[in-house]
């Protein structure tokens, strides 16, 4: 989905976000989005690690 946006699409999205939220709220929204994405990646990584550890321990038994 995101691979089809391109530079003009990103500029349009950023312009609309700037109009809707204003320049003072954009850094706050960016930080919140970044921390949410970081937490999601960490949780996903933990789930994958747990699954691979349980498969390895099942094979050893």
TrEMBL record:
<comment type="similarity">
    <text>Belongs to the TatA/E family.</text>
</comment>
<keyword id="KW-1133">Transmembrane helix</keyword>
<keyword id="KW-0811">Translocation</keyword>
<dbReference type="InterPro" id="IPR006312">
    <property type="entry name" value="TatA/E"/>
</dbReference>
<dbReference type="Pfam" id="PF02416">
    <property type="entry name" value="TatA_B_E"/>
</dbReference>
<keyword id="KW-0813">Transport</keyword>
<keyword id="KW-0653">Protein transport</keyword>
<protein>
    <recommendedName>
        <fullName>Sec-independent protein translocase protein TatA</fullName>
    </recommendedName>
</protein>
<comment type="function">
    <text>Part of the twin-arginine translocation (Tat) system that transports large folded proteins containing a characteristic twin-arginine motif in their signal peptide across membranes. TatA could form the protein-conducting channel of the Tat system.</text>
</comment>
<keyword id="KW-1003">Cell membrane</keyword>
<keyword id="KW-0472">Membrane</keyword>
<comment type="subunit">
    <text>Forms a complex with TatC.</text>
</comment>
<dbReference type="InterPro" id="IPR003369">
    <property type="entry name" value="TatA/B/E"/>
</dbReference>
<keyword id="KW-0812">Transmembrane</keyword>
<feature type="transmembrane region" description="Helical">
    <location>
        <begin position="6"/>
        <end position="23"/>
    </location>
</feature>
